[in-house]
Specification:
The N and C termini lie far apart (54 Å). The protein has four helices and no strands. With 78 residues, it is mainly α. The radius of gyration is 19 Å and the shape is flat.
């Protein structure tokens, strides 16, 4: 493995994530970026990455966990 990333091989979604990461890095070193702005940027990047891995058929089986584990709905939660 050479460690080289060929951007031509990336999907559109991967390109978008890479662009967002590069913008985040550039902003991180910007003297005008506040800590709150940087935290928000990192949070958005993390959320996008998390969502990509979270939405899959293998995990979808747990989306209806109440039915799967026979957990009744609490009446005070309705």
């Amino acid at each position: 493995m050479s460690g080289t990333i060929h951007v031509d091989d990336l999907t559109d979604e991967e390109v978008s994530l890479v662009k967002g990461f590069v913008q985040l890095l550039r902003g991180r070193h910007s003297p005008s970026a506040s800590d709150a702005d940087r935290e928000g940027d990192w949070g958005h990047l993390a959320a996008a990455s998390f969502a990509e891995g979270w939405d899959n058929d293998q995990d979808a089986t747990y989306d209806n966990w109440r039915d799967r584990y026979a957990v009744p709905v609490r009446q005070d939660a309705i």
